[in-house]
Amino acid sequence: MNVARDTVVTIHYTLRNGSGEVLDSSAGGEPLAYMHGGSNIVAGLEEALDGRPVGDRFSVAVPAAKAYGEHDPGLVQQVPRRAFQAAGEVRKGMRFTAQTERGPRQVVVTHLAGDMVTVDGNHPLAGQALSFDVEIADVRDASAEEIAHGHVHGEGGHHHD
Question: 89 and 41, same structural domain?
Answer without folding.
Answer: no
